[in-house]
Amino acid sequence: MGLGSLGRRLYSGEASINFVGRRKMWYLISAAILLVAIAALLIRGLNLGIEFRGGAEFRLPSPTCSVEQARSTASAAAGGEAIVTQTGAGDIRVQVPPIDTKTSTEVVKALSAECGVPAGDIQTQLVGPSWGGEITKKALVALVVFLLLVAIFLAIYFEWRMALAALVALIHDIVITVGIYALTGLEVTPATVIGFLTILGYSLYDTVVVFDKVKENTRGITGQSVLTYSEAANLAVNQTLVRSINTSIVALLPVVAIIVVGAGLLGAGTLLDLAVALLVGMLAGAYSSLTIATVLLAQLKESQPEMKALAQRVRGRRAAGRTKEGEEGVALPDSGGRVQPKKQVRSKRSKRG
């Protein structure tokens, strides 16, 4: 069966995956992932880049020294512990605690002599701790403003329950992405923050697509007794499932290409910082829009008195339908044997005059 055929069956209701009905399972899976993410964040913490913690960074192109030699040389010249890493392109990156311009010049001279790199070719970046704090503050302000605007938009366009469910899904995606960075030790840079804000927009888009279909399916739902709100919401998730899968695959392909080509082959660290955030966030967003946002929305809506009354009517109608089928000779699901249907009496033909 092709994906297109499956999509048509899911859209028409011929086939269905019970996302909403498996609420406890999705909550348990998300709780386990969030627990690991929060534990990693509390225990290991984030590996903040120099832009956030302040300090000095030196990049040595094509050095002749080893990482250990560069570390000992930089530590001695800077008077503090140096963090040295080697990029995919073979360059060496040296980071030291905050230092002044004079000390920075001494570090450049020491690295130049030890690693055989001309002093003019060593790239230097000095970042004060106050500037790093300002960047952190602006990132948090941008996040709060984004969430506030999202809540207002969704509350106006949909309703406050949808806004709440979407915000929970967004926070779910943020915590998972940040937890992955803490767990793997990847460096958090301004490019990472840009990636975080980007995945929030992507996750919101996916959630809005599903919620718009839920809104369409549940318009005037209290005027009928065929489907409950949860069943109508689950139908909306199934109807948008193939679209969500296709959108996620199309969006993830260039991100994977950035990781493999940009970071792996070209050694561009900034691309890796951005691409990993996008990759993790998009996967978490696709998951949460289908299993967290809509499931939580259905739970909130089912607590309303009118939705409880609707669910009761639907159950009553289905019970009456099963009773009628049993009277007509169709075996009930819990009956022990098969009931044969009664023969219908044929009507006599009227005589022609």
Automatic annotation (TrEMBL):
This is Protein translocase subunit SecF. GO terms for cellular component: plasma membrane. It is found in: Cell membrane. It holds the Pfam family Sec_GG. Residues 113-302 form the Protein export membrane protein SecD/SecF C-terminal domain. The keyword Transmembrane helix applies. The keyword Protein transport applies. The chain crosses the membrane at residues 25-43, 139-157, 164-184, 190-211, 249-268, 274-298. Residues 311-353 are annotated as: Disordered. InterPro entries: SecD/SecF_arch_bac, SecD/SecF_bac, SecD/SecF_CS, SecD_SecF_C, SecD_SecF_C_bact, SecF_bac. Keywords: Cell membrane, Membrane, Protein transport, Translocation, Transmembrane, Transmembrane helix, Transport. GO terms for molecular function: protein-transporting ATPase activity.
